[in-house]
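User: Predict Enoyl-CoA hydratase/isomerase family protein's structure from this.
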Amino acid sequence: MFTLTLDPPEVSPRLAVITIDRPGEKVNAIAPAALAAIEEQFAALDGTPGLAGVVLISGKPDNFIAGADVDVFATAKDRKEIEAFGRKGHEVLKRIAASKVPIVAAIHGACLGAGLELALACTWRIATDSPKTVLALPEVMLGLFPGAGGVTRLPRLVGVREALDMILTGRNVRPRAAKKMGLIDQVVSEESLLAAARRAAGLLAAHKIEPHLHPKSDVVRALLEHNPVGRRVLFGQARKTVQRKTLGLYPAPLVAIDLVERNLSLSLDEALAQEPPAFAELAVGPVAQNLVSLFRRSNALKKQEVKDAEGEVVEGLPIHRLGMVGGGFMGADIAVVSAEKGIETRIRDIAPEPLAKALAHCKSYFDRRARSLGERHVFKARSRVSGSLELAGFGTMDLIIEAVPENLGLKQDVFAQLEAMVPAETILATNTSALPIGKIGAKLQHKDRLIGLHFFSPVSKMPLLEIVVTPETSPQTLATCLRYAAQIGKTPIVVKDGPGFYTTRVLGFYLMAALQMVQDGHTIEAVDRGARQIGWPVGPITLLDEVGIDVGAKVSKTLAEAFPERIVVPDTVDQFLASKRYGRKNGRGFYIYPGEHERGFLGKKPRKRVDPEVYEFFAGRTPLAEPGDPEELGERLTLIAALEAIRCLEEGIIASPRDGDIGAVFGFGYPPMRGGPFRHIDALGPGAVCSRLAQLRERYGDTYTPPALLLELARSGKNFSSLNDNEGGAA
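Assistant:
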């Protein structure tokens, strides 16, 4: 993994370059073997005559070190094993930090987690100004904290406020912003990285430059960080913010705050010693175990293989040219994400106004990217997007994605028109969220190249791509779409065709159950609060407003046609639309949203608020004399989503619990700390869940009838993890 190159004795200054390159993997990651290799390399340098400095650089094209290998935490036998790994990591990093010669970290690409902590132990840090280069401590996303010196070294280097922001959010920091905050010492071009690192090592050895070891002083830092009262305010506010955002469901952020605060009053060695035991305690807890499991399983999904009828692996073809039919918000979003990844993209719409809006959306997106990355890094991506009112040029596309309004007849006409003009090998995809793919392509002659590519909004941020196959979809079409998902950085799940597929179907039942709770007399606030308390990122009523009530109405009607015995769309939905209540998009839905320039007391923008008039749309509703327990409402909603996920597994819509868990968490926000519906049910125990469902069914009706598969698992004493759910995946 580590290759040592040592200058000959006559070179001055004499430097060693250690190249990090994990064999057989796309990314470098820190594992026990890597720690041993680092020790070996530095031991080989001990006593080297005339050695002036060391440069650490990656041999990978896109990353420095992407973090620790999470398999260490997922497969460890017990807490002591994880703590031992942490202590070993600390020993190695202490050796680097105590080096008698300067060590320069030459960073290009992702420098994340343990990779950044390794860089923090170095004397000097140089990063390239490439869009590929990001620095972050994302451990909080896995239910952990940066336990290889991050909570100790980072605050001492950049200050408490900046360190807490990175540690508690896991956000990416670009090189120039990192230099401004003191995290990076130099920013250089990719081509000059090694030369700049060698020069810095020589200058450090000659004491012509000195490393900065402390954050720059300013008035705010003096008030908040350099006196006891200010620190109490700073840490108190940090705890309040975390509690408000997480509702106490994620322990890692609060543990990290405690460590940062306590470690500031300790010596460096005393502070570092606090990290391994606290990290190990979190790592064996249920939240971290579930989040790490999601990470590993999502990585495994990115490596899916497609086999033909003879069992041979089918290689997907790269997408070079993409055609978007439909220039709405979703179509434009797919276009910019694809163009940014090197794909020539053309948007077609039938009228000048929507096409102009689509191109304006693209311009706005690239303007934002230019502000963070620099114009020269987005210039090529910008030029890859074009627009047209005709289908001219679409005959040369590798992939065409339809994203017109959810109207079956309209979509069928679009595909008939496309098939008449494109070669047989061009893949035709639809971005529909609910209409069966088979019905959309019913009139096609070449049904083997038809597929569903269901993106989630906003496309630039949502990680999931739901790939929907029909019985006629060819292995080659599927393999190429999986490769396209990899090209644009999405996690794909492959599901079978059907109304709502997997994600929209499960979400539809969840949202309709929330409306029924309001009909039954619960307040909108109680329903939303209940879902949040169980771990959903937003409440279901808020989500309806965010998605758009008009969009939700179309989806619910599609599901009602398919499952008439289980979903009845209330008249409430049409009444909302008739009164032009579409949700956040026009400022009126279940909630009222303040205007862009509206200001309240002291100039603050008012928060959204429930419109009391919406209750008038729920005919026959009688408000409850006693408010319902929000936590039980959240439990009921979550169980309804989990039950529908189980039915999708029973019917073969999804292939495995793994796919169902990733689709639910990444697609519509099933509580991440639960690990997804199947892992959640396993944690509760299928038998215990069936007992609880019996209670709920007696009180609230047949909605809580357990699926046959759940009953079978309860009777046999098995769980979903026993159903050949290959987790797989590496860091």
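The mean pLDDT is 93.
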